[in-house]
Give the backbone structure.
Amino acid sequence: MANIISDETIEYVGILAKLELSEEEKEQAKKDMGRMLDYIDKLGGLDTTGVEPMSHVFPIQNVFREDVVTNGDTREQMLSNAPQKKDGMFMVPRTFQ
Amino acid sequence: MRITDMTAVLLAEAIREGKTTAVEATEAMLERIADKDKELNCYVTVDKEGALKQAKQVQEKIEKGELTGSLAGVPVAIKDNLCTEGLLTTCASRILHNFVPAYTAEAVVNLQKAGAVILGKTNMDEFAMGSTTETSAYGVTRNPHNIEHVPGGSSGGSAAAVAAGECFYALGSDTGGSIRQPASYCGAVGMKPTYGTVSRYGLIAYGSSLDQIGPLTKDVRDCATVLEVIASHDDKDSTSLVRQDTDFTKALVEDVRGMRIGIPNDYLGEGLDEEVKTAILQAARVLEEQGAVVERFDLSLVEYAIPAYYTIAAAEASSNLERFDGIKYGYRAEEYTGLHHMYKKSRSEGFGEEVKRRIMLGSFVLSSGYYDAYYLKALRVKALIKKAFDEAFAKYDMILGPVAPTTAPRLGESLADPIKMYLGDIYTIAVNLAGLPGISVPCGQDSKGLPIGMQLIGDCFQEKKLLQAAYTYEQISSRVSDL
């Protein structure tokens, strides 16, 4: 079945993805996503009743360690890539008045 | 023989014997890059000064006897999604155009401990999303065998650099075929190890449950040697495995007697280029003549691997790429109104088209109301695909098939139709879903002179079987071509 992606869906996904698309990009995204979903719908034809979803191939457990600091102070190095910084902190646009 | 044509292992040997030095090798390689890379664009960054400085230090350690390993002094190229302290790491994206990491990826640290000299960072598809290296924000890389064709991707810069003699070996990463397919297109050897064999610490994540780092090399001996050095358990990557069997060079034995090799009928069907098919079957015959038992069988579920993969990879990508927000590093939009607008504008201007396409799809399949139908469904299909491989490996030591349905396409042919491009991953992608090791070995050329690669796929932890079969094939075919 052909997937028709509505304007609302594209708006909503744009919010989730934190992307601002131009009108042209939105139209393209609607087409692309519809085609991809048509293709992915193929999976629906496969009976997976009783099959557990597999996130990792190996039975991976949580890996715990003691809560002890092992790395040194790398604040300056970490901040060196920040587009804006102030007083040893990342600087963001004003979020409230 | 030009020094730049040597394999990594032979160069290290020559350095140990005092016939040449790490500095001479580095200088020769930098000259070669200056000569060739304007045309091919294998590198995003060439670290001329840094490489020469490292070469001097490494050479001193070799002379003092502090460095004796089989890669000591050999210059290497690193894919630009592996963090290198103090050296620009862009992931071929505008959003990381100025990112200089504060630490080095564990796989690269392992190489440095073994005396590697880092030449620079290789071009790739943006965030490793693509099969042609055409989605890079820093221009396309060209195939050294024919510059009108793509080198494959996403590790296209690494594969092309190895093939063009612009490095002695390279590291790449493989999420759905991104080492094996460009190796095949460029005529190099490329291996994706079992998931968890090489630490992913410092690898800029795309699809974390699928990503694995591996070597791209000139021959199978180099491949085994590099893998032996980069494989390690690492507390900093909680999915990294403790393995005792990482002495991969022990597998460099010319013997395939009694090895059971299965060729999936599903890998020889519609869409496979006739010349590729002929070359693959000829390679299988070579192994059979050496005593391997070769059979055809039905693997099943092959057509479900691509839709399952793109669902899972896009979902993981949408989550992994949330960190690019214009605050901690990388690109920030010039003008915006408030915090949320800044996030959105920085990301929209910083990411390329293919990356945005996958983030959108991933956000959708994870969204409330669609999560079960798409994402969980794909994870269930993944379990079935793994089971199909388990059944195959109960009968066979390895699976043999093509790496890709065709040889390298022409530049500009692939991006117009994303789904068609995704279909090109059909033989490589299931390997990542099932966490298996796979190797691509050159096995001839088509009538246009473009390389063809044979893929060998093993059960988890069976890299040695693959390396042994690949080495045997390579030894025999090199003797044939010497006649």
Q: What stands out?
A: Residues 263 and 296 of chain B are 5 Å apart (CA to CA). Residues 371-395 of chain B form the longest helix (25 residues). Chain B touches chain A through 70 residues (CB under 8 Å). The mean pLDDT of chain B is 97.
